[in-house]
Amino acid sequence: MAITVTLPDGKALELNDGATGADAAAAIGPGLARAALAIEVGDPNPNPTQPAGGSPIGRSEIGRQNPTPAHPAELRDLARELPDGARIAIVTEKSEEQALALIRHDAAHVLAAAVMELWPGVKISIGPAIENGFYYDFEFPEGVSISEEDFPRIEERMRAHVRAAERFERVEVTPAQARERFGTEDQDYKVELIDDLVKNATGAEDGGAPLATVSLYTNGPFTDLCRGPHAPTTKSVGAFKLTSVAGAYWRGDSTRTMLTRIYGTAFFSKAQLAGYLERVERARERDHRKLGKELGLFVFSDVSPGAAFWLPLGASIWNQLVAVSREMGSERGYTEVKTPLIYDAELWKTSGHWGKYRKNMFTVKVEEREMGVKPMNCPGHAYLYASQRHSYRDLPVRYSEPGLLHRNEPSGVLHGLLRVRHFAQDDAHIFCTEEQVQEEVRGCLEMAFATYALFDFEVRLELSTRPAERIGTDEMWDKAEEKLKSALDVQGLGYELNPGDGAFYGPKIDMHMTDSLGRSWQLGTVQLDYSMPERFDLTYTGADNQEHRPVMIHRAAFGSYERFIGIMLEHYGGELPLWLAPVQAIVLPISDPFNEYGATVRDSLQKAGLRVELDARGESIGKKIRAAELRKIPRMLIVGEREMQAGEASVREHGKGGARGPEGRVGSVSIEELPTAILGPVEARKLKAPRVNSA
Ligand SMILES: [Zn+2]
Ligand SMILES: [Zn+2]
After folding, report:
1. Which end of the chain, N or C, is less surrounded by CB atoms within 10 Å?
2. Are 307 and 415 in contact (CB under 8 A)?
3. Where does the pLDDT of residue 687 fall: very low under 50, low under 70, confident under 90, or very high at 90 and above?
4. Residue 681 predicted with pLDDT over 90
C-alpha cells in the first residue's frame, strides 16, 4: 500500500502507507529532513476552482510568495501520519513568521517546564506565541512574587531543557483521562480548560458526538494540554530571552485571579536575537513618552487619562503644525469655522454616529437632554452647511477646523500621544458638486503631499472600500468608490487596494508613512461621503434653479496633531526639523560679562521670528553646550569677547559640533546675517518638492 501527496510545486510524491511528515521531508532530501520543523497539510480534495469572487488584490496579498490555496492548510507535527492525497509543504526556518511562531510556542513550554522545577506547586494556565515572542501565565504559590531579577535563573533552567534536545511527544487521550491527570496535579486552570473544550465541542450541545480526545505534549519532565503543533525537539529554540513580567487576569476577566505573565522572545540564532533586542532598545530610546518628559514637551496624568498636558515647548510644536495647516488651507481656498463640542443626541442620530459609534463617545445628560461630545467635526460642519443657503456658484465650500475631539477609548489601549481620548485633527470638509469631486480629491492629495514635503518620509497610498458595517445604499458606494479610483488613476498615482476597510459612511484614500524604525503609520485621509449629505438633507441651488445634493469630502493630512507629534518624535528621535523645533537656537554666553550681549543677540533673532533662548546661568560654557545638546536644540550660538567686539556669534550645530554660517561657511556669523544663517535651511525645506510614489 502507498499514499500520494502533492508538493507545493504541484509534483506528486509517493510514500509508504503510514508515512509521516518527517518521512516526506526525508524522501525529498536529507537536507530538508534536517531542517524540517513542522508540516502544512492541506485538504486532500481541494476544490480545483477558486471560491466565488476570486482572490482580492489587497494588502494581505502583498509580499506573499505563494498564491492563497483554495482551502487553508493545517500546521502539524512532523511525527504525525499523513492522509492520502494531501497537499503538503515542509516548514523550515526559511518559513520566517510561521517558523518563528512555532519555536516561540516551543519556548513557552520550555519556560513552563523551568518555572515548575523552580517553584513546585505553581499552577500553569496558557502560554501562546504572540507577535515578537511568547508568554506563559502562572499562578505562583502564596508569598512568591516574580521579578526580572528571577530571569537569569529561569533562563538557566530553560537553557538546560534546550541543550537536552528534548523531544516534543504528542499523545491523544480522552478528556476524562486528561482531567484526571491535571486534577491530581492540582492544575485547576487546565481542568477548567478541558471542561470548556468538552462543553464547546461542536455537536455536544445538540446531542451530537462528544469530544473524543484532547492532545497532550510532553518534553522532558513537562506535560501540557496543548493543541500543538511543535518542532521535533526543544533544540530548535536557537536563542531566547525573557523580556518582562506583568499581571494578567485569568481569561482577561477582572473578576478572576490575577496571574503572573512572563514574556519572552525566541529566535533561531543568537545574531537574530541580538538584532531584535537592538531594535527594541532603539525604539525604547525613541519612545515619545520618554522624549516628551526629557525635552519638557508634555505630561500625562491620571486626573485625565488619555489627555496630554502640553508644556510651553510642546504647545509650540502643536501650534506650529496648526499654523502649517492654516497656511496651506488658506492658500487653497479653505475657510476656518468653529463648531460646538457638545450636541444633542438627535444630531448624532441624524449623522449615524449614535447607532454605529456611540460606544466610542462621551455622553452627558444636560437638563434631561441626552448630549454627546463630538468625536469628529463632520456632523457639526454638515449642520453648519445646512444652516445657510448655497448656490452652485458658491461651491465648493471648504470648511476647516482644528476642533477639539474626544473619543472614549478603553484605558487599556491608551498609549501616550499615539492613542488618546482628547485630541484635535487638521480636519476639513468640502461640499461640492458631483462634477467637482475629482478635482477636489486631487486638491486634497496635493495639499497632503505639500504638507508631508516638510518632513523627510515617503508616502504610500491605500484605497479602502466598503466595510461590512456601513450606512448608505450599494449604489452610493459604487459611485463613491469609482470617483476615488479615477481621481488616483488620472493622476497616475500608485496605490494598494484595501477591500472592506473604508469608513462606515464612505470609501477613502489613506496616506501612510514608514518611520526611521521601519514601522508603518497611517496619517492622512481623503474620504468621500454620499451618505451624510442625505442624512442632513444638504442642498445647493443649481443653474437650473432646482435643489441638488452636494457631495461631502472629509480630508486630513496630519490626522490627529497629537498622534502625529508622537510619531514624529519617534521618527526623528526627538531631533525635530529646524522649522518645527520648539527652540530653534540658544545663545550661550561664555561667561557672565557677555550675558547682556547675548540678550541682544536673542532679541534680534526673536524679532526676526525665530524661537530663541538665552542660557545666562553662571555655568561653564562646556556645561551649557552639553545641556543644549541634551535638549536637542538645533543651533547653539556661542558669544564671548571676540564675538561681542565683532558683533557676531559662533554657530554650532546640534550633534555636529563645529560651526557653520550661511552657504556652509564655518565660523562666526554677524548678527545681521544670523536669521538667514539659521532660517536658510527652513526655507530650503519648505521649497523641497513633494515626494510620492507614482504608478
Ligand atoms: Zn502549547
Ligand atoms: Zn469628517
Report:
1. N
2. no
3. very low
4. no
Q: How far is the CA of 555 from the centre of ligand 2 (A)?
A: 7
Q: Which ligand is nearest to the CA of 378?
A: 2
Q: Please say if 554 is a catalytic residue.
A: yes
Active site residue 508: yes
* Residues in Cβ contact with 66 at an 8 Å cutoff, skipping those fewer than 6 apart: 8
Q: How far apart are CA 580 and CA 220, in angstroms?
A: 59
Write out pLDDT tens, residues 577-591: 888 999 999 999 999
Q: How far apart are CA 682 and CA 270, in angstroms?
A: 44
In a domain, 59, yes or no: no
Contact between 564 and 379 (Cβ < 8 Å): no
Q: Is 378 a catalytic residue?
A: yes
pTM above 0.90, yes or no: no
Picking from 541, 571, 601, the residue at the C-terminal end of a domain is 571
What span, in angstroms and rounded, lies between the C-alpha atoms of 657 and 308? 34
Question: Based on the domain organization, do 555 and 600 belong to the same domain?
Answer: no
Write down the pLDDT at residue 682: 56
Q: Per-residue pLDDT for 528 more than 50? A: yes
Report residue 45's pLDDT band, with 50, 70 and 90 as the boundaries: low
* 186 flagged as catalytic: no
In this predicted structure, which of 435-449, 496-510, 602-616, 665-679 has the lowest mean pLDDT? 665-679
**How big is the chain, counted in residues?**
695
What backbone torsions phi and psi does residue 133 show, to the nearest 5 degrees?
Answer: 170, -140
Query: Of the candidates 539, 571, 603, which is a domain's last residue?
Result: 571
Q: With bands split at pLDDT 50, 70 and 90, how would you rate the model's confidence at 56?
A: very low
Q: Give the Cα separation of 213 and 402 in Å (integer).
A: 60
**Cβ pair 214, 194 in contact under 8 A:** yes
Q: How confident is the model at residue 658 (pLDDT cuts 50, 70, 90)?
A: low
Residue environment code for 581-601, b if the CB has 16+ CB neighbours within 10 A, otherwise e: bbbbbbbbbbeeebbebbeeb
Q: What is the pLDDT of residues 286-319, one digit of tens each?
A: 999 999 999 999 999 999 999 999 999 999 999 9
How far away, in angstroms, is 456 Cα from ligand 2 center? Answer: 27
Residue 175, classed as helix, strand or coil, is: helix
CA distance 64 to 72: 15
| Span of 42-46, 75-79, 138-142, 262-266 with lowest mean pLDDT | 42-46
Which ligand has the nearest atom to the CA of 379?
A: 2
Query: Is omega for the bond preceding 396 within 30 degrees of 0, making it cis?
Result: yes
- Of 597, 601, 625, 611, which is closest to residue 673 (Cα–Cα)? 601
Active site residue 427: yes
Confidence of residue 479 (pLDDT cuts 50, 70, 90): confident
Angle at 465 between CA 463 and CA 468, to 5 degrees: 150
Residues 381 and 427 in one domain: yes
Answer yes or no: do 636 and 523 share one domain: no
Instruction: Measure the CA–CA gap between 161 and 111, rounded to whole angstroms.
Output: 9
The parent domain of residue 218 ranges over 98-277
Residue 372 burial (10 A CB sphere; 0-12, 13-18, 19+) = buried
Distance separating alpha carbons of residues 366 and 345, to the nearest angstrom: 11
In percent, the amount of the chain with pLDDT more than 70 equals 91
Cα 542–chain centre separation? 44
Tell me if residue 407 is catalytic: yes
Residues 475 and 601 in one domain: no
Total domains in the fold of the chain: 4
Which pLDDT value is given to residue 44? Answer: 63
pLDDT tens-digit profile of 392-415? Answer: 999 999 999 999 999 999 888 899
- Same domain, residue pair 553 and 675: no
Which among 554, 555, 631, 654 is annotated as catalytic? Answer: 554
- With CA atoms as reference, report the closest residue to 236 among 77, 126, 355: 77
Concatenated DSSP letters of 459-479 = EEEEEE---SS--S-HHHHHH
Same domain flag for 656 and 677:
yes
